[in-house]
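To start, one record:
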Amino acid sequence: MIERRSRIRRFFEIELPAILLVILALAPYVWMAITSIKPTVEIARFPVLYWPENPTFEHYADLFARTSFPRNLLDSLIVAIGASAMGLGLAVPAAYAFSRFGFPGRRAAMTMFLTINMFPIVLLIIPLFVAMRILGLLDTIPGVVLGHATFAIPFAIWMLTSYLNGIPRELDEAAMIDGASRLATIRYVLLPLAAPGIAATGIYIFVASWNEYLFAMMLSGQNVRTVTVALQSFIGEYTIQWGLLTAGGTLVALPVTLLFLFVQRHLIGGLTAGAVKS
């Protein structure tokens, strides 16, 4: 009897709230996917038709045949990969320096990196736009990549520094005593041990870049347009192309969802290890 009450209490206190949270989180995505396979006449029907009577993939066909969405997907992929590569390329050596060396201003710099993420992006977009215009990088892949990486790098450094702090310094010293140079120590000792944290940081930058809208809108134009900006073009002043919008939204959410499901164990482990106090 006591065990049964314990199970019932566990269900109402833990399992039921968790189920409700999952349903609440997934409901918009499920509704978006269902709407994407509805014919246009059924989307506008009132009362609302919850499940399509005649499912169709015409919106997906129109998305690829009548719009520049395939090119926008490619632009987003290039920008996200570029931002991840640039972010990791700068964050890894910076995190190593903050983790292994003591120098004046170290703590202040780390605090500044964390504080930057507290400011709204809109406060940074105007100075960044002016800088990109002066450098001639507006509406270019490097310009959008640089914009995305700029906002992601501070948090990436903070997370990687915390992760590297969890790797004993005695391993560095042992490798150097055996004759390894500092670069060899980083390559053969630290990087393999820090691989989960680096992977988690790279995925964080990739997902943030893939879903970013404000930087992409301000720094891109006709030559470069990411999927988040492309989706906004389906929303007009008087009409909204719901079929194309939901089909595009489903395609945009799919790669990130699959990526997260594929690497969730490494991602959670890396984020947890990087959450310790530096």
